[in-house]
Design brief:
Elements (H helix, E strand, L loop, with lengths): L2 E3 L5 H10 L14 E3 L5 H4 L7 E4 L6 H8 L5 E4 L4 H16 L2 H8 L5 H4 L10 E5 L3 H12 L3 E6 L7 E2 L3 H4 L5 E4 L13 H6 L4 E5 L8 H10 L2 E6 L28 E3 L10 H19 L15
Helix pairs in contact: 1-11, 4-7
Length: 312
């Protein structure tokens, strides 16, 4: 099975991938490839592979460009991997605690020898609080379990309700009872803008929002206004509305049209939940990629399969 790897891979990663696939794949790539490993896939690039049968995204999430391209390719399956679920869920919990405990204002004050936040404490306990986790995939399920372990009452919401998880149609009923809202859903046509002014108003005053999914799940201006007014007590944000187009633009790129950096109740993180570049995560990424490639070599298209109609 000939595999084309789009992008740059370290020689050690290539050797590990070849070892784990035990000769089942040939990574020389080229127009005879039947499997394309690519993050962003355009129709123009896909046209270079007339024998293409499978597209594998080497991380979690599916871009709209890739999804639209694959939808136009007859008989081509789409897959992705979730090697960074542990890292993303740990980031969600980190941001949640930092926002709930208001670590940023306390840290800023202490750097000025100001101890006042000790004598006028604010924030809340996670224990006995009501946590709503929006999304029950690899990340959302971990976040829910960790919060339960901390003594919180956890309600989970997902597209299709189950015995232990309510449906997304119950969102408006649950929000007024929510102290902490953790957003862990994929970005699809259904989830884009899911949390807007009305949903934020339904949350109790002082509630905390955590977003480690995609920025566009939460409407940008309503989020800023709710935090600015103090209705939202805090937010931990790892995902944004504007990103650098390259590493050269990593300095000086505003993450939003609104000045979230001026808000002391916001914990800001530059989309680090995926632990990009971390050695341990890169090893896991190659291992997960090898599992999918081995399955495809055995004609098993179920592993990591993306439902193209749903977008995840």
């Amino acid at each position: 099975m000939i595999v084309h790897l789009k992008g740059s891979y370290e020689p050690d990663s290539i050797r590990t991938l070849e070892k784990l696939t035990e000769g089942r794949i040939d990574v020389k790539g080229g127009e005879n490839s039947t499997v394309l490993v690519a993050g962003i896939l355009t129709a123009e690039f896909a046209a270079s592979f007339p024998l293409l049968k499978h597209v594998v995204i080497p991380y979690a999430g599916v871009s709209r460009t890739t999804l639209d391209t694959v939808r136009q390719l007859s008989g081509v399956t789409l897959h992705n991997i979730h090697h960074n679920a542990a890292a993303a869920s740990e980031m969600a919990i980190t941001l949640m605690l930092a926002a709930v405990k208001q670590i940023i204002p306390a840290d800023s004050a202490m750097r000025k020898d100001d101890w006042s936040t000790r004598y006028f404490p604010s924030g809340k306990l996670v224990e006995d609080s009501s946590v709503t986790v929006l999304g029950q995939g690899a990340v959302g399920s971990r976040v829910g379990n960790i919060c339960r372990g901390m003594g919180a009452s956890v309600t989970c919401l997902k597209r299709t309700p189950s015995e232990d998880c309510r449906g997304i149609e119950d969102l408006h009923e649950i929000l007024p009872k929510t102290d902490i809202l953790c957003i862990c859903v994929p970005l699809t046509d259904e989830t884009r803008g899911l949390i807007g002014a009305r949903e934020l108003e339904l949350l109790p005053r002082g509630a905390v929002l955590v977003n480690t999914a995609r920025g566009e799940v939460v409407q940008e201006e309503p989020l800023f206004r709710s935090l600015e007014s103090g209705h939202l007590g805090g937010a931990g944000l790892d995902v944004w509305y504007n990103y650098p187009k390259s590493r050269k633009e990593s300095s000086g790129t505003n993450p939003s049209a609104f000045d979230f950096s001026s808000l002391p109740n916001v914990v800001m993180s530059p989309h680090r939940g995926g632990a990009l570049g971390m050695k341990e995560l890169e090893r896991r990424r190659i291992e997960h990629l090898a599992c999918i490639l081995n399955a495809l070599a055995e004609q098993d298209t179920s592993r990591g399969r993306v439902n193209i109609s749903r977008g995840y």
